[in-house]
Amino acid sequence: MTMQTILGAGGAIGIDLAKELLAYTDKIRLVSRNPVKVNAGDELFPADLTNAESIDEAVKGSEVVYLVVGFPYDIKVWRKVWPQVMNDVIAACKKHNAKLVFFDNVYMYDRDSLGYMTEETSIRPTSKKGEIRRQIAQTLQEETASGELTALIARSADFLGLTNSVPVEMVYKNLAKGKKAQWLANANKVHQYTFVPDAAKATAMLGNTPDVWNQVWHLPTDHSRLTGKDWITLFAKAMNVEPKFTVVPNWMLGIIGLFVPIMRELKEMNYQNDRDYVFDSSKFEERFDFTPTQPEDAVKYVVEKLNESAS
Length: 311
Fold this sequence. Notes:
- The chain is α/β, with parallel strands linked by helices.
- Helices cover about 40% and strands about 15% of the residues.
């Protein structure tokens, strides 16, 4: 069995990814500031991923490294840490002859192309965070093009999962308190979400398949063209409540952001909610004969898990 290492093991993807990797190896190293075992045999490796020496030690002995870390949603933090972390991870993987799987998002895509995104969608970021994502993805791809590194990009749409999920924060949590659900910008626009367990399973599959490297892969995402209103209806049905909601307009994010910093950070990305957001994962689905989880089933799963943790 070969060592597979998760950098950012405690985040939204890391926990499910650790479960999925058991299908391929029993040597799984979980790396974060305070790692917690997911599987009985996991190796825990406390490390500061903003420190090059820590990254080097964490990568040593690994055959495959998964970079799935999530830093605070703050442009100042992203500018400071993301380029350096990417450079340090690449250097460590090259030094120790490890393959790298980078878990990415769609922030660098041209906003005018969100209505139908594929792996070939043009790169034209129009936000500060998007520019950072463009920069680090380009750094990785330049290394693979040079032949110095074996790597791939596993790219996800917005999450539908237990954490770091806008539908959970704005729909589930409000409905659970007896309040109206909230939606950003326009509830009549299509917005597809990647179900986190599907994303984790697919990421593990990519990391353990010989012929998929040095490419970009969209992670499996159901093709149903549900609007914000449709998602709210699914959550309300699963929670057995009325699907009442309000829409938060873009201008209001600016005001709320004066008091709630995360909303200020969301404002520049809100263009993703005022137009259709369609994420095509046909390349992955056809290569692996993979059918993404249906939205109704995904929502039921999320609601059941959140209800269990609340009780």
